[in-house]
């Protein structure tokens, strides 16, 4: 009886320690969207780092969904312990696949596509078109970019002019292949997720953001901001991410 009691206490103590360890999420892996790069996430990263999180920004090539998932997995492989995976815009396509990585404890979609199996960015975007119409093709017809003349209006209307101009100049062109690739295994089906809806978004229809989040069962937070909500409202975005880390177990 005495030995059984000691074993039960030891087992309970171990379970409590394991639960505490599982709940401790300190790693944040951010996947930027297309027509932008990771530099716009600096303020969010700094806020999260000040709160004690380890933040890494994936600079994916946007040459194909497969390539971008691989780039994200390489970063996830380097993390020590569970990670929260955050994706903006096209980055939502990437984290939906890369979120199946064993290190991922939860997903945060920031004004992002949240696809189901068999869906591509093009199929989702065409289901509820956005207000912006400034995407252009490169001369070879293989890549897409956002017209610098309309970048601020359609992507970052609530940023200072100079900040929007920098985002425009640092944008990563997206291959058509990346936009037409279909998701195979949506991680949100098995892992907790959160979704930020940018209510003034002209790059993704806000109603589409709401519909995708509802379908996935994501906890939804609405922020009055442009598509560049991560840059114009970094404190609010960081707060959502930090709270998600506390909730993801």
Explain the overall architecture:
The protein is of the alpha/beta class. It has one domain (25-247): 3-Layer(aba) Sandwich (Rossmann fold). Helices cover 43% and strands 19% of the residues. The chain is built from eleven helices and nine strands. It has helices at residues 2-23, 42-50, 65-77, 91-98, 121-127, 151-155, 161-169, 176-180, 206-216, 229-232, 234-247, and strands spanning 27-31, 54-58, 83-89, 104-112, 135-137, 143-146, 174-175, 192-198, 219-223. Strand 5 and strand 6 form a beta hairpin. The longest helix has 22 residues, at 2-23. The radius of gyration is 19 Å and the shape is globular. The protein starts with a helix and ends with a helix.
Mean pLDDT: 92
Q: Under the CATH scheme, which architecture would be assigned? A: 3-Layer(aba) Sandwich
CATH C-level category:
Alpha Beta
Question: Uncertain regions: pLDDT < 50 for 5+ in a row?
Answer: 4-21
Shape: globular
The strand order across the widest sheet is: 2-1-3-4-8-9
- Taking Cα atoms only, what radius of gyration do you get, to the nearest Å? 19 Å
Q: Could you tell me the number of beta strands?
A: 9
Number of helices: 11
**Spatial gap, N to C terminus:** 34 Å
Give the tally of structural domains: 1
- Give a short account of the largest sheet: 6 strands, parallel
Short key terms for the protein model shown above:
249 residues; 11 helices; alpha/beta; 6-stranded parallel sheet; Rossmann fold
């Amino acid at each position: 009886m005495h030995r059984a009691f000691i074993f039960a206490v030891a087992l309970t103590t171990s379970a409590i320690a394991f639960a505490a360890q599982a709940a401790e999420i300190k790693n944040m892996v951010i996947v930027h969207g297309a027509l932008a790069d990771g530099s716009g996430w600096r303020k969010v990263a700094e806020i999260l780092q000040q709160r004690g999180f380890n933040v890494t920004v994936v600079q994916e090539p946007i040459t194909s969904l497969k390539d971008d998932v691989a780039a994200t997995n390489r970063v996830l492989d380097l993390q020590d312990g569970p990670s929260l995976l955050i994706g903006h815009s096209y980055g939502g396509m990437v984290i939906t696949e890369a979120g199946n990585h064993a290190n991922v404890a939860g997903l945060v979609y920031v004004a992002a596509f949240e696809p189901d199996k068999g869906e591509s960015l093009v199929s989702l975007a065409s289901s509820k078109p956005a207000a912006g119409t400034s995407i252009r093709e490169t001369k070879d017809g293989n890549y897409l970019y956002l017209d610098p003349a309309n970048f601020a209006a359609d992507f970052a209307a609530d940023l200072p002019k100079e900040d929007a101009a920098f985002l425009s100049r640092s944008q990563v062109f997206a291959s058509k292949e990346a936009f037409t690739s279909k998701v195979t295994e949506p991680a949100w089906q098995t892992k907790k997720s959160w979704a930020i809806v940018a209510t003034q978004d002209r790059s993704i229809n806000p109603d589409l953001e709401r519909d995708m989040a509802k379908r996935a069962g994501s906890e939804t937070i609405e922020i009055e901001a442009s598509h560049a909500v991560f840059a114009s409202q970094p404190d609010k975005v960081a707060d959502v991410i930090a709270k998600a880390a506390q909730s993801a177990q």
